[in-house]
Amino acid sequence: MVFLSQIETFIFNFVSDDINQTNPPCFVSEDFNHNTMEKTLNDIIVSTIHSHIPENVSPVHILTELLNLSKESVYRRLRGQIPFTFIEIIEISRHFGFSVEEIINQKYCNLEKGFEKDNQSEWQDSDITNCQLFSGNIELYKNLQKAQKSNSFIVSTRIPVFFTMSFNRITTFYLYKMTHQLKDVPFDFYFSDFEVIEETASLRQQFIYHYNRIKNLTILIDKNCFQNVINEINYFYERNLLSAEDRALLKEELFLVLDLVEQVARKGYNDYNTKVDLFVSSLGVEANYAYYQFDNNTLSYCWTYGFNNLTVNNDGNTTRIYRKWFDSLKKYSTYITRCNHKQSSEFVKFQRDTIESMS
After folding, report:
1. What domains are defined for the chain?
2. Tens digits of residue pLDDT in 64-92
3. Which of 182-196, 229-243, 282-296 has the highest mean predicted lDDT (pLDDT)?
């Protein structure tokens, strides 16, 4: 399961037109792309398409109609000059009747060797990883915006990124924490020494812009979502890697985040007219999940490190399982958007007291 999750994440990062021309895809290094794989992912997709049509039929006309692209754009994809996007692969697989797993299985052995090699090195470059945290999702949010009909469902153990991403210091702390977890840094790598590169900052702004403008969002959060973040902050503070001043500034931002959560719960919309339904779980949420529906597409995610995708899966059975599981969680949750004002007030007060308890 871990191996398939990595493959699926590789596909998602590899095929995003907007960003992957300059950044190597997550989990897979440039050396691996050129030396380990006999055929690129794009080559495999093209050969799979050819295997599903008669020899005397050109795929150009089919793909032009199917993907609503010009002939030149299709030719560039077939020649491997630019990769197919993730959404295009979904459309192609649906039309021809093959799965993403079918494509990957053609190169299972070579990929396995490449991942074994790459898992030891790719995550060492935190700048690349931080960029990909944002860039890997921008394409998805663009498609959610453009879709005639879309719904997004988030289950989170901590404060959702939807609420925190506009706050610079908290976002920087998330990236710093992830760098500590994924990169071989010195024991005395201080928060004050951590810098967000310009490319990451730029991608973050794009991420914020598009995420804030998706159409419908349902969020189910752990009742201790703020405490989970505070525990992480206190951990680095107690290790003397985070100064008292920085912790105080993070505390101030947490209050601002809570104000935003309260505002959205009261209005039912954010400032960009995204409809938000907010649930608070009465039970502990054990993992972070997301489920997306847009037009005829479904995607499901599982992630850690705040907002880094570990699983991407467009398989119908899997996404139905995620959706069923999500709906089951709502049975043990309280809906606090524009209703249940007593419970909503109690939730906000509990979180405010939790933040205030940071000494």
Report:
1. 2-118 (1.10.260.40), 125-356 (no CATH)
2. 988 888 888 899 889 888 888 777 887 88
3. 229-243
Handedness of CA 104, 110, 113, 118 (dihedral sign): negative
Q: How far is CA 139 from CA 1, 14, 177, 186, 203, in A?
A: 25, 12, 25, 34, 12
Instruction: Enumerate long-range contacts of 62-70, CB under 8 Å, 24 or more apart.
Output: 62/95, 63/92, 66/91, 66/92, 66/95, 67/91, 67/92
Which of 133, 102, 158 minimizes the C-alpha distance to 16?
133
Query: 3-class SS at 146?
Result: helix
Least confident span in 51-55, 87-91, 122-126, 257-261: 122-126
Contact 355, 258 (CB under 8 A): yes
Chain-centroid distance of CA 349 in Å reads: 30
Contact 192, 211 (CB under 8 A): no
pLDDT tens, position by position, 288-330: 888 888 887 888 877 665 444 544 555 666 677 778 888 888 9
Go through the chain and tell me how many residues it has: 359
